[in-house]
Amino acid sequence: MKHMNSEVKEERTSNKKRIDLFLVPIVLIAAFLNLFKIWTDEYANAYYTAAVKSMLQNFHNFFYASFDPGGYVTIDKPPVVFWIQTISAKIFGFHGWSVILPQALAGIGSVLLLYVLVKRTFGVWAGRFAALAMALTPIVPAVSRTNNIDSMLVFTLLVATWMLFRAVRTAKFGWVLAAFAMIGVAFNMKMLQAYMVLPAFYVFYVVATKITWKKKIAFLTTATALMLAVSVSWAVVVDSTSADKRPYMGSSQTNSVLELAFGYNGINRLTGNTSVTGSSHKQPAQTEQQTASSETKQNSNSSADSSQSSNQRKSSSSQKMQAPGGGNQNGMFNTGNPGPFRLFQKGLSDQISWLLPFVIFSIVGLFVGVKFKGPYTTKQKESLFWLAWLLPVAVFFSIAGFFHQYYLIMLAPPIAAFAGAGAVALWSMYKQHNGWKSWLLPGGILTTAALQVYIMSPYVSSIGVAPIAGVGALGVILALVLAVRKQRKNSLTNYLGAAVMVVLLAMPAYWAMTPIIYGGNSMLPSAGPDSSSGMGGPPSTATNSKQSGFNGMQPPGSSSSNSSSNNQMQPPSGSSNSGQMPGGSSNNGQMQPSSGSSNSGQMQMPGGSSNNSQMPNSFSSKSSSLKRKSGGMNAEVNQKLLNYLTKNNTGEKYLFATTDSTSAAPYIIKTGKPVMAMGGFSGSDPILTVSKLKAMIKKGEVKYFYLSGMGKGGQSDVITWIKENSKEIPSSKWQSTSSSAQQGPSGNGTLYEITLK
Predict the structure, then answer these.
(1) Which of 3-12, 50-59, 86-95 has the lowest mean pLDDT?
(2) How far is CA 544 from CA 160, 536, 624, 635, in A?
(3) Which pairing describes strands 704-707 and 727-729: parallel, antiparallel, or unpaired?
(4) Helix (H, G, I), strand (E, B), or coil: what is residue 455?
(5) What pLDDT sits at residue 624?
(6) Could you write out the DSSP letters of every residue in 379-429?
(7) Which of 67, 117, 201, 327 has the most CB atoms less than 10 A away?
(8) Residue 25 pairs with which residues in a beta bridge?
(9) Cα 412 to Cα 150: distance, rounded to the nearest angstrom
C-alpha cells in the first residue's frame, strides 16, 4: 500500500512539471493529419450525416438516432457518437466538418492518451515513440477524418484503459467500476466491437492487483454487471417502447436493438453471414434473376444495356471480385483471405501492419525471462495488458468473415504501445550487450524494413522505385551498422536510435498523409495512394488520382456516355445479397448486387452514392461530374426532381419514398425534410407491409415513390403493389438529362404517384 501511495504522489508531482516539449510537435503532427482540409468534405458519409440532420430537429429523433426527420427508421448503429456529432453541429452549425470534428479530436486525444499510458511505466521516450507511432499509423487519421465511429470508439477504450491502470495503482474499486462502465459506453457506440478489449482488462486486473482471489472475483463480477447494465440501457429502453411510438430499428430483422447488436453487428461479422441485413434470410437465386430480368427490361435505356445486363447475370456465382490493381480477393473491399498471415496481405498490411515485425521483436524483448507464476514487474504487467489487447483482435481480423479496412484501427493502440516500449527496451539491451538479446534491435529493424518494402511494392507505379529501394537499403545499412558497432561505445551510437525511428516511420508517415494528398473516402476510409477510392488496394491506372469517390464512377442521373458499359466491375450473379459498404454488409466477402437489381454490375454505397453507379475496372474516367472535395463521393440532389416534388407536395409528411437510404440521404441533408427509406439502409429491412403503406397513403403521409429496382429484399410485395396501383410520372418532368447532371435517384429508376381515397 505504501508503494502504491508513493506512486500516486509521484504521479501528482509529475503532473505539475512543465509540458514535454518533444510531445508538442507530435501533437501538431496528429492535429495536421486529423484536421487539415476536413472542411472540404461537404457531406462526409451522407448516411450518417443525414441522421445528424434529422437528430437536430427534435429530441425524439435525437434519442433514437433516426435516419430521417420523419422518424421512420434509425441508422444501423447505437446513438452515442451521433449524439456527440449532433451537439457539435448544434454548436458550430450543420456542416460536413462539424460532424467530422469530434472524430478528429478523438484521434488527437488517442495520441495523447497513449503517451500518458506508456510514459509512466516505460519512460518518457517510450511514451514519445508510442504517441508518434499512433499518430502515424495510416488508418488512424484516415478514419478520424470522417464521421465514422471507430476513432471515437478507440478513444473511449483508451480512456477506460487509463481508468483501469489508475485503479490498479491506487487500489480503489471505484476506478474499476468506472473503467468497465466506460466500456459499456463504448458498446453504445459500436456494440460488440467494444468488447474486444475485455480479455486485456480481465487478465491485467487479475495479474496486477495484490488482493485475494475472492476480492478479485467479486470486484470483476460487480464491474462486469455494471458494464452490461450500461451496455444494454439504451437497448432496453428502445426495445420496451411500443413500435408505433419510435422509428424502426434499422438493419435489424425483428425491430430489436439487441438483435442488431448480437446478430448483424455481432456474431455475423465473425461468420460472414451478413446477407440481407444481418439475417440468414435469402430469396431464391432463381427468383432474384427473374426479378432482375424484369427490372432490366423496364429500365434499360438501350438494347445494348439490356445485352450487357444479361451477360452480367450469366456470370458464374462462384466468380470472385476482381480487386483493385488486380488479383482475386475473397475479402470484400480487399480485406484479404482468412488465415494466419491475413494482416500481411495487401489491402490490410498498408493500413496497420508497418511496424508489426518490430512489435514481435519488442514483445520478445519485453517478456524475456518472465516466469509463468511471477512475480511480474510493472512493465511486464502492462506489456501483458497490451498483448492481451493485440492478440485477440488480431486473431479476429485474421479469421473474420466480414469487416471493413477501417475497423483495423482497433489494433493501433497495442501496436503503437509496443513500438514505443519496445524501442526503448531493445535499445537498452543493445547498448548493454545483453548476449543474444542485443541482436533483437538490428533483427527487428531488418525484418520491419523488409515488410515495408513488401507493402509498398504493389504501389511502385504511384510512388516510384526510389522510396521502396531507399527504405530497403537504409534498413539493411542500419542493421549492419548496429551489428558492426555492437561492441563500441561513442556518441555516434546514440544518433543511430533516432535514425532507426526515422527509417521505420518515414513511409507510414507518408501513407498517413495520403488522404490529404490524394483525397479520402468518407464512406470507406483507408490510406494509400488510392485512398480516394476507399478500396485500399494497389493503385489503378487512373489518370487523375485525386478524382472523387471511386475514381471516375459515372454519376447517377447522368446521360453522359463517357463511361463504357463494358467497363463495369462484375459481381457474382444470382445473389440476393447486397454489396453494401459502411453500415452495410456482404455475403462471404463477395461484391453482389442487391436483390431485384436491374444492373448486376451495380453495388450499393451508403452515404450518398447512387444505387446505379458503375465502377470501371480501371477506376478511371476522362470526366466526372462528381464534386472533388476530400476525395469522397459527396451526395448531391437532382435539383429538377427536388423542384418537382416540392411544387407538387400537397401537405404530405414525406417528400417522397424510395427503397433504401442511399437515394434518400442527399435529399434529407439538402432540405431537412422527411424522405422515407422504405427498406432502411440497404432496402431489405422488413419495415413496411402493403396494409401499412395503404394506411399511410390514405392519411396523406406520402404519395411519391422513386423505385430503381435496388434493395427489394424484404419488400417485394410492397414494391409490386406500388407499381400496380400508381401513376408513372414522365421522366421529362423530373429527370435531368445533362451530362453534368447532379446526383440523385438515377435515370434508370421510375417516379410513381399514388393517391388513395
Answers:
(1) 3-12
(2) 43, 17, 11, 20
(3) unpaired
(4) helix
(5) 35
(6) HHHHHHHHHHHHHHHHHHHHH-SS--GGGGGGGHHHHHHHHHHHHHHHHHH
(7) 67
(8) none
(9) 11
Identity (one letter) of the amino acid at 647? K
Tell me how far apart the alpha carbons of residues 475 and 479 are, in angstroms, rounded to a whole number: 6
Query: What average pLDDT score do residues 74-103 get?
Result: 97
Q: Which ranges constitute the DSSP H helices of 621-750?
A: 639-648, 661-671, 690-698, 716-724
pLDDT at 629: 41
- For 473-477, which contacts have Cβ atoms below 8 Å and span 24 or more sequence positions? 474/449, 474/503, 475/445, 475/446, 475/448, 475/449, 475/450, 475/503, 476/446, 476/449
Q: Which helix (H) or strand (E) holds 706?
A: strand 704-707
Burial 723-740 (b: 16+ CB within 10 A, else e): eeebeebeeeebbbeeee
Long-range own/partner contacts, residues 238-247 (CB < 8 A, 24 or more apart): 238/64, 246/60, 246/64, 246/71, 247/61, 247/64, 247/66, 247/67, 247/71, 247/72, 247/73, 247/74
Cα–Cα separations (whole angstroms), residue 515 to 94, 138, 629, 631: 23, 9, 11, 8
Phi, psi of 99 (to 5 degrees): -85, -20
b/e burial code for range 472-496 (CB count within 10 A of at least 16 → b): bebbeebbebbbeeeeeeeeebeeb
Positive or negative torsion for Cα 69, 72, 75, 78? positive
Number of H helices, E strands in the chain: 29, 5
Categorize the per-residue pLDDT at 387 as very low, low, confident or very high, splitting at 50, 70 and 90. very high
Cα 693 to the chain's mean position, in Å? 34
All cell numbers assigned to 367: 517478456
SS3 750: strand
pLDDT in the model for residue 262: 87
pTM: 0.81
Please answer whether residues 249 and 260 qualify as being in contact, where contact means their C-beta atoms are separated by less than 8 angstroms: yes
Q: What is the pLDDT of residue 492?
A: 61
The Cα–Cα gap between 348 and 538 comes to 11
Note the pLDDT of residue 319. 37
Q: Assign 719 a pLDDT band (cuts: 50, 70, 90).
A: very high
Give the three-state DSSP class for 66.
strand
Amino acid 328: pLDDT: 36
**How do strand 750-753 and strand 704-707 relate by DSSP bridges?**
antiparallel
Cell of 501: 525511428
Using a pLDDT cut of 90, give the percent of the chain over it: 60
* Nearest of 213, 230, 214 to residue 177 by alpha carbon: 230
Q: Residue 192: helix, strand or coil by DSSP?
A: helix
- Those residues with Cβ within 8 angstroms of residue 246's Cβ, 6 or more apart along the chain or in another chain: 60, 64, 71, 238
Q: Under a CB-based contact definition with an 8 Å cutoff, are residues 385 and 379 in contact?
A: no
Do β-strands 704-707 and 657-658 pair in parallel, antiparallel, or remain unpaired? parallel
Chain mean pLDDT for the chain? 79
Sign of CA dihedral 465, 468, 472, 473: positive
Q: Give the C-alpha separation, 608 to 463, whole Å.
A: 30
Edge to edge, what strands does the sheet with 657-658 contain?
676-677, 657-658, 704-707, 750-753, 727-729
Give the three cell numbers for residue 549.
469517390
For 657, the 3-state DSSP assignment is strand
**Which pLDDT band holds residue 566 (cuts at 50, 70, 90)?**
very low
Kindly state the cell numbers that stand for 81. Answer: 457518437
Report the C-alpha gap between 25 and 707 in whole angstroms: 53
Q: Secondary structure of the chain: what % helix, strand, coil (to 5)?
A: 55, 5, 40
